Amino acid sequence: MRAAAAAAAAPAAIVKSRASLWPRCWDSGLPLQPPPPPHRRPICHANPRLPTTSSSARPIVDMSYARHFLDFQGSSIPKSMQKLVVTQLSPNFREAVTLLRDCPVPLPGDGDLLVRNRFVGVNASDINYSAGRYSTSVKIPFDAGFEGIGEVVALGLTASAKFTIGQAVAYMTPGSFAEYTVVPAKIAMPVPSVKPEYLTLLISGTTAYISLKELGELSEGKKVLVTAAAGGTGQFAVQLAKKAKCHVIGTCSSAEKSGFLKSLGCDLPINYKTENVGAVLKREYPEGVDVVYESVGGEMFDLAVNALAIKGRLIIIGFISGYQNPTGLSPVKAGSLPGKLLKKSASVHGFFLNHYFSEYQKAMDHLLKMYESQKLVCEVDLGDSSPEGKFTGLESVFRAVDYMYMRKNTGKIVVELPHSVNSKL
């Protein structure tokens, strides 16, 4: 009876011991060491002489297991870190966001991972987020950034059932613009390695895949117009439309981007800096285009509506031209929109990724397989061609956002976070 009672109490004892150990180790600022061996035989070791059932196939080990949750091969998890925090609501990212340099490294809960970020993704919607446009109830301060990729450096007991220390994971959750981010294990995605190409799929790739699949009704021979086609999301819309055997037109802002689009299979790149987009569309496609994948807004939106064919479909995944404005919108000729749609039996659909999370994992799995089999290009822009050079460190996120809104990027903008020379990861 005493042995049974001790075995039943073991998990609770371990959880209590681990909880009391963490704050003491974390605040020391020293490399974490395993606690000294217990003076008595650990009550939670499995007895090899007893039959093992499925419920006891993974026995809890002794207190030295706590090191597994906090450290990796003796590398030190620091006491403090840097992160970007929204301290005032504004569409001006530099005004809205502050770089804090002495924040405590967060502790993962039982079902969480602590991820040391290696790369973080920059999105047009970062400005909408810092302006408080996604939720009227949001209160400052709150952490900035949506997506990251890195290694697991600490995790909770329940999370350890599926993840291990040192494992590469990608995730999409608020608070990625930080050196360390706590990520619920249920939303973390294991990836083969810490490559920025995987990061491009989290928001940009899935947005293109799900929106075109659910709303585009693509089929062979359809004409598809992609605006901002050389951007982080546009690059995937072009490739996925070509995989569906469509004829693809893409707008962009330079000769270099036109060349990039051609390399993706785009049938007709249009450089809106040197060509009149409306005139080109009217000349080349007098019957109109069947699907428009639109992310620019303003004047480009009006051109896209006018270019729709009979029963054409326009999918709005953003309107970046207005995000830096106080209202978040650029003027459009909305007054004439009902008449234009009615005349063509055309339609306009909005797409917001948060409303399609039921399709998210399936989309990620499909895109990962495409990339691994070299059937998908995941173009990354690390800022090598920007005036001040590569985007390295959290302080360069501000430059990266400016770079995006100046329409300089080709592919997905990604910021690399360098590691301490003492890191063993």
TrEMBL record:
Q: Which PROSITE patterns match?
A: QOR_ZETA_CRYSTAL (PS01162)
* Gene Ontology terms, MF aspect: 15-oxoprostaglandin 13-reductase [NAD(P)+] activity; zinc ion binding
**EC annotation?**
1.3.1.48
Looking up SMART domains in the UniProt record yields: PKS_ER
Q: What class of enzyme is it?
A: oxidoreductase
Task: Read off the SUPFAM superfamilies from this record.
Answer: GroES-like, NAD(P)-binding Rossmann-fold domains
The lineage's top-level taxon is Eukaryota
- GO CC terms of this entry: mitochondrion; peroxisome
Segments forming domain Enoyl reductase (ER): 92-415
The biological process GO terms on file are: negative regulation of fat cell differentiation
Which keywords does UniProt give here? Oxidoreductase
Region Disordered, residue ranges? 32-51
Record-stated family: Belongs to the zinc-containing alcohol dehydrogenase family. Quinone oxidoreductase subfamily.
Recorded protein name is 15-oxoprostaglandin 13-reductase
Provide the species name. Answer: Sarcophilus harrisii (Tasmanian devil)
